[in-house]
Amino acid sequence: MGSSSPTRASLLLRIRDPRDRLAWREFVGVYAPLIYAYGRRRGLQDSDTADLTQEVLHRVARASAAFEYDPAKGSFRGWLLAVSRNELRKVVAREARQARGAGDTDVLELLEQQVDLSDEDAWEREYQWNLFRWAANKVRVEFREPTWQAFWRTAVLSTGIDQVARDLGISTGAVYVARSRVTARIRQEIEAVEGE
Fold it and tell me: How far apart are CA 91 and CA 185, in angstroms?
């Protein structure tokens, strides 16, 4: 998963068409969990986080029609983080007005935390993890269960190769092959989202 890579420009261009359901399904599958995790990490309740996610995706949909991708102006994920921060501020302010009135010190402290510079790092890590999970879920149906388990248990759960081979009743070589095959397919899906 490594370093940050840009969002695939063709996906960003495809979502300009609101009728391109495949592009939107892919976009939402990759980015909605990222936005949701951001809201939860910032202390929102589940329903408020769902509202935040919906509002951010709505903003993307409105902006996408006129979207011109220019990496020189900054990354798409950077822009998406800024939109998420702004929408989070609105959710928190709305919640403060409804629950306790404006100016509550807890709300002010939460808003002040929003400019935390580590936000970008956490956002990128969360994006990479969500992208991996999305790709893994997409390709899982392509593999028999023992192959998937050999991959998942060694690559994700960090269980030893020998232990997994014994548990699954296969050779250690078969575990290595299974892990390699699944990893390669997941990389292909990730590259399809991130790279041209």
Answer: 39
